Amino acid sequence: MATRQIRKVGDDVLRKKSKIVEKIDQKILTLLDDMYETMKEADGVGLAAPQIGILKRIAVIDVGEGLVEIINPQIIERKGEQVGDEGCLSVPNEYGPVKRPNYVKVKALNRNGEEVIIEGEEFFARALCHEIDHLDGVLFTDKLEEEIID
Ligand code: ZN
Protein backbone atom coordinates (compact mmCIF):
# COMPACT_ATOMS: atom_id res chain seq x y z
CA MET A 1 0.00 0.00 0.00
CA ALA A 2 1.05 3.56 -0.57
CA THR A 3 -0.35 6.96 0.12
CA ARG A 4 -1.11 9.22 -2.80
CA GLN A 5 -1.15 12.96 -3.15
CA ILE A 6 -4.49 14.60 -2.37
CA ARG A 7 -5.53 17.11 -5.04
CA LYS A 8 -6.70 20.46 -3.76
CA VAL A 9 -9.37 22.90 -4.89
CA GLY A 10 -8.24 24.68 -8.06
CA ASP A 11 -7.06 21.40 -9.60
CA ASP A 12 -9.22 20.72 -12.70
CA VAL A 13 -9.42 17.01 -11.97
CA LEU A 14 -11.79 17.73 -9.07
CA ARG A 15 -14.28 19.25 -11.51
CA LYS A 16 -14.42 16.37 -13.98
CA LYS A 17 -16.95 13.56 -14.18
CA SER A 18 -15.49 10.19 -13.26
CA LYS A 19 -15.92 7.11 -15.42
CA ILE A 20 -17.72 3.89 -14.59
CA VAL A 21 -15.40 1.07 -13.53
CA GLU A 22 -15.83 -1.66 -16.15
CA LYS A 23 -13.62 -4.29 -14.60
CA ILE A 24 -12.35 -4.76 -11.05
CA ASP A 25 -8.78 -5.88 -11.60
CA GLN A 26 -5.64 -5.81 -9.47
CA LYS A 27 -5.10 -2.14 -10.32
CA ILE A 28 -8.50 -1.24 -8.87
CA LEU A 29 -7.82 -3.29 -5.73
CA THR A 30 -4.50 -1.52 -5.23
CA LEU A 31 -6.23 1.80 -5.80
CA LEU A 32 -8.80 0.95 -3.09
CA ASP A 33 -6.01 0.05 -0.65
CA ASP A 34 -4.10 3.23 -1.44
CA MET A 35 -7.22 5.35 -1.08
CA TYR A 36 -7.87 3.88 2.35
CA GLU A 37 -4.32 4.53 3.47
CA THR A 38 -4.37 8.07 2.06
CA MET A 39 -7.67 8.81 3.82
CA LYS A 40 -6.42 7.46 7.16
CA GLU A 41 -3.15 9.35 6.97
CA ALA A 42 -5.03 12.58 6.25
CA ASP A 43 -7.42 11.83 9.12
CA GLY A 44 -10.43 11.96 6.81
CA VAL A 45 -13.72 10.07 6.92
CA GLY A 46 -14.06 9.70 3.17
CA LEU A 47 -12.08 9.91 -0.05
CA ALA A 48 -13.15 9.71 -3.69
CA ALA A 49 -10.80 8.63 -6.48
CA PRO A 50 -10.76 12.03 -8.25
CA GLN A 51 -9.29 13.48 -5.06
CA ILE A 52 -6.12 11.58 -5.87
CA GLY A 53 -6.36 12.39 -9.57
CA ILE A 54 -8.07 9.19 -10.74
CA LEU A 55 -11.31 9.74 -12.66
CA LYS A 56 -13.01 6.50 -11.71
CA ARG A 57 -16.28 6.07 -9.82
CA ILE A 58 -14.79 4.77 -6.58
CA ALA A 59 -14.93 6.05 -3.01
CA VAL A 60 -13.95 4.87 0.45
CA ILE A 61 -15.69 5.95 3.64
CA ASP A 62 -15.03 5.27 7.30
CA VAL A 63 -17.13 7.28 9.72
CA GLY A 64 -15.99 5.13 12.62
CA GLU A 65 -18.14 2.11 11.85
CA GLY A 66 -15.65 0.32 9.63
CA LEU A 67 -14.44 0.74 6.08
CA VAL A 68 -16.99 0.97 3.29
CA GLU A 69 -15.72 0.71 -0.29
CA ILE A 70 -18.06 1.68 -3.09
CA ILE A 71 -17.54 1.20 -6.81
CA ASN A 72 -19.97 2.74 -9.33
CA PRO A 73 -22.26 3.96 -6.52
CA GLN A 74 -25.75 5.23 -7.26
CA ILE A 75 -28.15 6.80 -4.79
CA ILE A 76 -31.41 4.95 -5.31
CA GLU A 77 -33.41 6.38 -2.42
CA ARG A 78 -33.34 9.55 -0.31
CA LYS A 79 -35.42 10.47 2.73
CA GLY A 80 -35.62 13.47 5.01
CA GLU A 81 -33.28 16.37 5.34
CA GLN A 82 -30.39 17.46 7.52
CA VAL A 83 -28.16 20.50 7.61
CA GLY A 84 -24.70 20.13 9.08
CA ASP A 85 -21.16 21.37 8.76
CA GLU A 86 -19.01 19.72 6.15
CA GLY A 87 -15.37 19.85 5.21
CA CYS A 88 -13.22 18.15 2.60
CA LEU A 89 -9.63 16.95 2.35
CA SER A 90 -9.44 18.76 -1.01
CA VAL A 91 -10.69 22.06 0.44
CA PRO A 92 -8.36 22.76 3.37
CA ASN A 93 -9.51 24.90 6.27
CA GLU A 94 -13.00 25.48 4.95
CA TYR A 95 -16.14 24.25 6.67
CA GLY A 96 -19.77 25.15 6.27
CA PRO A 97 -23.37 24.00 6.44
CA VAL A 98 -24.71 21.80 3.66
CA LYS A 99 -28.22 20.39 3.28
CA ARG A 100 -28.31 16.65 2.65
CA PRO A 101 -30.90 13.88 2.87
CA ASN A 102 -31.05 12.35 6.34
CA TYR A 103 -31.17 8.87 4.83
CA VAL A 104 -29.87 7.45 1.59
CA LYS A 105 -29.86 4.02 0.03
CA VAL A 106 -26.92 3.40 -2.29
CA LYS A 107 -26.40 0.64 -4.79
CA ALA A 108 -22.76 -0.11 -5.58
CA LEU A 109 -20.26 -2.86 -6.25
CA ASN A 110 -17.85 -4.08 -3.61
CA ARG A 111 -14.25 -5.12 -4.32
CA ASN A 112 -15.42 -8.61 -5.25
CA GLY A 113 -17.65 -7.19 -7.96
CA GLU A 114 -20.79 -8.06 -6.01
CA GLU A 115 -23.72 -5.70 -5.96
CA VAL A 116 -24.30 -4.30 -2.48
CA ILE A 117 -26.98 -2.09 -0.99
CA ILE A 118 -25.73 0.36 1.61
CA GLU A 119 -28.10 2.32 3.82
CA GLY A 120 -26.83 5.39 5.62
CA GLU A 121 -28.37 7.77 8.10
CA GLU A 122 -27.26 11.12 9.48
CA PHE A 123 -23.47 11.55 9.28
CA PHE A 124 -22.95 8.39 7.22
CA ALA A 125 -25.65 9.55 4.75
CA ARG A 126 -23.85 12.89 4.54
CA ALA A 127 -20.53 11.19 3.83
CA LEU A 128 -22.07 9.00 1.10
CA CYS A 129 -23.61 12.04 -0.62
CA HIS A 130 -20.39 14.06 -0.31
CA GLU A 131 -18.21 11.33 -1.84
CA ILE A 132 -20.66 10.50 -4.62
CA ASP A 133 -20.79 14.23 -5.48
CA HIS A 134 -17.01 14.12 -6.02
CA LEU A 135 -17.55 11.54 -8.78
CA ASP A 136 -19.56 14.15 -10.67
CA GLY A 137 -17.11 16.98 -10.07
CA VAL A 138 -19.20 18.57 -7.33
CA LEU A 139 -17.64 20.01 -4.17
CA PHE A 140 -19.46 20.77 -0.91
CA THR A 141 -18.62 24.44 -1.36
CA ASP A 142 -21.04 24.46 -4.34
CA LYS A 143 -23.86 23.59 -1.95
CA LEU A 144 -23.20 25.78 1.07
CA GLU A 145 -26.33 27.07 2.75
CA GLU A 146 -26.63 30.85 2.60
CA GLU A 147 -27.17 31.12 6.31
CA ILE A 148 -26.80 28.79 9.20
CA ILE A 149 -30.11 27.34 10.33
CA ASP A 150 -30.67 27.01 14.06
ZN1 ZN B 1 -14.55 15.84 -0.21
In short:
With 150 residues, the chain is an alpha+beta fold.
Could you explain the architecture of this structure?
19% of the residues lie in helices and 33% in strands. By secondary structure, the protein is of the alpha+beta class. The chain has a single domain (12-143), classed as Peptide deformylase (Peptide Deformylase, Alpha-Beta Complex). The strands form 2 sheets. A 5-stranded antiparallel β-sheet has the order 1-2-3-6-7, sandwiched between helices. Strands 4-5 form a two-stranded antiparallel sheet. A hairpin with a 6-residue loop joins strand 2 and strand 3 (68-79). The chain is globular, with a radius of gyration of 14 Å. The protein binds zinc ion. Residues 88-90, 130, 134 line the site of zinc ion. Zinc ion is lined by residues 88-90, 130, 134.
Features:
150 residues; alpha+beta; five-stranded antiparallel β-sheet; 2 helices; 33% strand; binds zinc ion
Structural class: alpha+beta
User: Which molecules are bound besides the chains?
Assistant: zinc ion
The counted number of beta strands is 7
N- to C-terminal distance: 43 Å
Global geometry: globular
Mean pLDDT: 96
Considering DSSP H and I runs of 4 or more, what fraction of the residues is helical?
A: 10-25%
The major sheet is characterized as: 5 strands, antiparallel
Number of helices: 2
CATH-defined architecture: Alpha-Beta Complex
The SSE string, one letter per element, is HEEEEEEEH
Order of the strands making up the biggest sheet: 1-2-3-6-7
Low-confidence runs (pLDDT<50, min 5 residues)?
Answer: none
**What would the CATH topology be?**
Peptide Deformylase
